[in-house]
Write a structure and sequence with these properties.
heterodimer, A: about 250 residues, six-stranded mixed β-sheet, 12 strands, B: about 300 residues, mainly alpha, two-stranded antiparallel ribbon, 13 helices, binds adenosine-5'-triphosphate, binds magnesium ion, MetI-like_sf (chain B), membrane (chain B)
Chain lengths: ~250, ~300
């Protein structure tokens, strides 16, 4: 089994503030990898480095064996052109805390947009695929609705369908359920569970410890820009070794 | 997507349930009658004054559809449309330049906006017209070469003067529009593998339009009126034609009334267009769009699917 994501000593600062202080981890192909940690610990920042929405300052980050954002020739690094970065992002789906659906497009149009614009798929084909994907996330009857006409949970499921439309090999989830009313969380988690069962490699930043325990294959606890503890979710969540993990879990569980 | 008009009628059809409906005597507002009477009186005396004045009202309808007037009208429209197009395209370009991370491009845009907003458009028109004093020839290599005075026709002067000036104003409107779009939209688009250009064209600009269209409508209406300035550089627009006819026929004021009437008609037509354009770009922003006046009219006049005895 190869690593889908491999991080070696990732550092990232915003100005003088160091947010990531040397992250090392590996996400195996086909696994569900959960990231937990207190607010401000750098979880979102790390996730955004994986698809190069943020540039790292030091370290090496590989997705599917290829360096993210750079090309290595000899011992020199060359920055990739925007178009090359965009090409690599096609293979990485991302789901945001605040959905970020395109409000001027219907659910179906949201799902169709990238395949048509980026991959050059015909509109008819893309529409057919969008219908299938919306069906899959349980929104077959909402294809014509604008995001403002959908509940938060429905919007997030459209966002997942939108990311899946590009047929990614890796999905990133940044707290996909934390902007949702409690009764809507379940629907989104069900969709994610199905996706995990289908063998998708997923990196999930979450506060849903139940989801991490049931669906997760690996779990990392981050705090202050470093990995504090990692391992099997059931072990880490029930029997944390580090004191910082223990105090964090005692607050959220 | 079509909007089901009848949905919005829902609450009006349901009679108030529960306790007895209130039938109270409304508060009287005698002040309103007094102020209305005063306003009507003033209006009446103004109308009376104009009717009494030495004005040959017959000249207005006589020349209303005169060939030269219509030609001037078309010239005014042409000027408005083309100048606005130059302004909009230039404005979007300047706004993108202004927001770019490259300090050179953003400074150039800043300087352009500073210069063109800071000088009167009439002065700019004269400068374009008279630039022949500085440049005797215009020489675009093998493509084109001529005297400045021949090259710079009144139409070109007018288009350049109005269009380039408008671009500076449109730039600020477009910039506000682009900034109004949530950053998450750009991020989501980039995360899907869309390029900068596609993100701008497909995701950001359509959403920015909701903020850009209303003030742009005002700009169009302003432009329509500002075109009257170009009579100063000899372009045969509506106002210039009206002036010429007025002087020759000895009905100067009458022709100004005629021009005003045409300007009013055109601005009214543009306002209607603006309403529908705003509606178009509002899609997705509200759960259901309110019916247009035409739809409302149809709903009120045609009693189809309406329960009896319900007044709108
Ligand atoms: N663009 C930015 N500019 C400056 N500082 C930033 C930026 N983005 C994030 N930060 C800072 O980096 C730190 C980590 O942020 P990050 O969003 O990665 O945290 P997080 O672990 O996702 O927290 P949360 O659980 O609240 O989402 C925070 O202190 C934040 O203020
Ligand atoms: Mg976060």
């Amino acid at each position: 089994m190869t690593a889908m994501v491999k991080a070696e000593g990732i550092h990232k600062s915003f100005g003088a503030v160091q947010v990531l202080k040397g992250i090392d981890l590996e996400v195996q192909t086909g696994e569900v990898f959960c990231l937990i940690g207190p607010s401000g610990s750098g979880k979102s920042t790390f996730l955004r480095c994986i698809n190069h929405l943020e540039k790292i300052n030091a370290g090496r980050l590989y997705v599917d064996g290829e360096l993210v954002g750079y090309r290595q020739k000899g011992d020199k690094l060359y920055e990739l052109k925007d178009s090359e970065v965009a090409l690599k992002r096609r293979d990485i789906g991302m789901v945001f805390q605040r959905f970020n659906l395109f409000p001027h497009m219907t659910a179906a149009e949201n799902v169709m947009e990238a395949p048509v614009q980026v991959k050059g798929v015909s509109r008819a084909q893309a529409r057919e695929r969008a219908r299938e994907l919306l069906e899959k996330v349980g929104l077959g009857d909402k294809a014509g609705n604008y995001p403002s006409q959908l509940s938060g949970g429905q919007q997030q499921r459209v966002a997942i369908a939108r990311a899946l439309a590009m047929e990614p090999k890796l999905m990133l989830f940044d707290e996909p359920t934390s902007a949702l009313d409690p009764e809507l969380v379940g629907d989104v988690l069900d969709v994610m569970r199905d996706l995990a069962e289908s063998g998708m490699t997923m990196v999930v930043v979450t506060h849903e410890m139940g989801f991490a325990r049931e669906v997760g294959d690996s779990l990392v606890f981050m705090d202050g820009g470093v990995v504090v503890e990692s391992g099997n979710p059931r072990d880490v969540l029930t029997n944390p070794q580090e004191e910082r993990t223990q105090s964090f879990l005692s607050k959220v569980l | 997507m079509t909007v089901d008009v009848n949905k919005t009628d829902g609450p009006a059809d349901t009679p108030p349930a529960g306790p007895e409906a209130i039938k109270a005597i409304p508060v009287r507002h005698p002040g309103r009658y007094v102020s209305a009477a005063i306003a009507l009186g003033l209006l009446g005396s103004i109308v009376y004054a104009f009717a009494q004045g030495n004005i040959n009202w017959g000249a207005v309808p006589e020349y209303f559809f005169n060939d030269r007037v219509i030609e001037g009208l078309l010239n005014t429209l042409l000027l408005t449309v083309v100048s606005m197009l130059i302004g909009i395209v230039g404005g979007i370009l300047l706004a993108v330049m202004r927001l770019s991370k490259n300090p050179v491009t953003s400074s150039i845009a800043w300087f352009y906006i500073w210069f063109f907003r800071g000088t009167p458009v009439l002065v700019q028109l004269f400068v374009w017209f008279n630039l022949g004093i500085v440049f005797t020839y215009i020489n675009l290599g093998p493509i084109y070469k001529d005297y400045w005075s021949v090259f710079m026709t009144p139409l070109l002067t007018a288009l350049l003067g109005l269009g380039l000036n408008e671009a500076a104003y449109m730039a600020e409107i477009c910039r506000a529009g682009l900034l109004s779009v949530d950053e998450g939209q750009t991020e989501a688009s980039h995360a899907l593998g869309m390029s900068h250009a596609k993100t701008l064209r497909r995701i950001v600009i359509p959403q920015a339009m909701r903020v850009i269209v209303p003030p742009t409508g005002n700009e169009v209406i302003n432009m329509l009126k500002t075109t009257s300035l170009v009579s100063a550089v000899g372009y045969m627009d509506l106002f210039k034609v009206a002036q010429d006819i007025g002087q020759r026929a000895g009905s100067v004021v009458e022709m100004f009334f005629l021009a005003s009437a045409w300007y009013l008609i055109l601005t009214s037509v543009f306002s209607v267009g603006q309403y529908y354009l705003e509606r178009y770009y509002a899609k997705g922003s509200t759960r259901s769009l309110p019916p247009t006046p035409v739809q409302r009219f149809k709903a009120a006049v045609l009693p189809a699917r309406r329960p009896k005895g319900v007044s709108a």
